[in-house]
Known about the structure:
By secondary structure, this protein is α/β, with parallel strands linked by helices. The protein has 2 domains: 2-59 and 380-388 and 414-434, Urease, subunit C, domain 1 (Roll), CATH 2.30.40.10; 62-368, Metal-dependent hydrolases (TIM Barrel), CATH 3.20.20.140. Helix content is 31%, strand content 24%. The chain has helices spanning 38-43, 81-90, 109-122, 145-151, 166-179, 190-193, 202-207, 215-231, 243-254, 265-269, 291-303, 318-321, 338-347, 353-357, 362-368; strands at residues 2-15, 20-29, 32-37, 49-53, 58-61, 63-68, 93-98, 126-129, 131-132, 156-157, 183-185, 198-199, 211-212, 235-237, 259-264, 308-310, 383-393, 412-422, 425-429. The strands form 4 sheets. Strands 1, 2, 3, 4, 5, 17, 18 and 19 form an 8-stranded mixed β-sheet that branches. The protein has a 6-stranded parallel β-sheet with strand order 9-10-11-14-15-16, sandwiched between helices. Helix 5 (166-179) crosses helix 8 (215-231) and helix 8 runs parallel beside helix 9 (243-254). It starts with a strand and ends in a 6-residue tail after the last strand.
Amino acid sequence: MNAHRTAYINARLIDPASGLDAPGALLTEGRTIADLGPRLFNEGVPEGTLTIDCKGALLAPGLIDARVFTGEPGAEHKETIRSASKAAAAGGVTTMIVMPNTNPVIDEVALVDYIERRARDTALVHVHPMAALTRGLKGTEMTEMGLLKDAGAVAFTDGDRALANARVLRRALSYARTFDVLVVQHAEEPALSEGGAMNEGELAMRLGLTGIPKLAETMMVERDIRLVELTGARLHFSQVSCAETLEVIASAKGRGLPVTCGVAAHHLALNENDVGAYRTFLKVSPPLRGEDDRLALIDGVLNGTIDIMVSSHDPQAPENKRLPFGEAAFGAIGLETLLAVALSLHNVHDASLIDALKPVTSAPADLLKLPSGRLAKGAPADLILIDPGYPYVVHGDQLRSRTKNTPFDGLRLQGVCLRTVVNGVTAYERAPDAA
């Protein structure tokens, strides 16, 4: 038997990149996909091939999560690359894009190399770093994008900090266009959002909490799009949270500007009312908005205004979360729940499986120019086997992340990962008695 050749038979093949949705089989050879399709299922697989019967489950590209915070280096008590990769593999995420908000900040070539070496040594899944857009995330001096790109940085961002200085951002966008790199912005005007804890509105008033207005996001997006018009650079808004922002982005796309945006899974599944009795695990940035905004975000994903979906995985230590709401840190973990929220577009909102999985597979692969995120001959053998209808209750203490600050604790979700394959090797397999 060829130990490096594996056939996945009796599968329902789902490939958002090509639109494939058909019963069939897939053959991997080493680290790549060698063949796939209904024909392979009908004609059989080569002799001596390790065969895995998928029993009708979905076989899809592994998820690409384009916004993951870890604590390594500097805050490993929150999360390490290894612990995050374990959560990722269990959630069907085969590629993590990690943010530069570490200590030290990922703003030099040596630190990009450090992340890549740590990933090679410890991670179960692929890990690619975004590098800092400005030195030390201070918003005043650009980093050396060309050198950092050559070192392996897939994009440039200040993570959870908006680059508020328009002059610096203009220069950064002009520089980025020279190297054809993607700039990623956290769209939240700092002065308007400073001191805020949740969405500005009636609920915040009743809870006695300082609100963060939607204008803080929309105004920043409008400003930055003007700079895109001026420079022609590619700009991605990492998370959008309200209908007004979507209108601005849709208009920019209609004018042919190279603007894209993402949405966090928790913004699609939850709204400000879920904050309830000051539940700090639901304190996120940007904040959860109203139900009308949540529904607008879902429509934005389905109509293509929103390009990708991210977990915005942001582990926080208990001492930073178990505080009065106004004092608690922003952030929620999400690597293990991203798949279920993506599948909710199919299970709840009647989207096709192709449309539900595209924002977490081929769309982020195209955005970041990665070879994964698709089922195709010669593509990386990064695969997930999915039971899209399996219901379960999220128990935060059972999640694999080092910290447990999930906004979905106690909630029922639908859809699980049965097997995760990275580079042709199984990185995770769900226990039979758990499925």
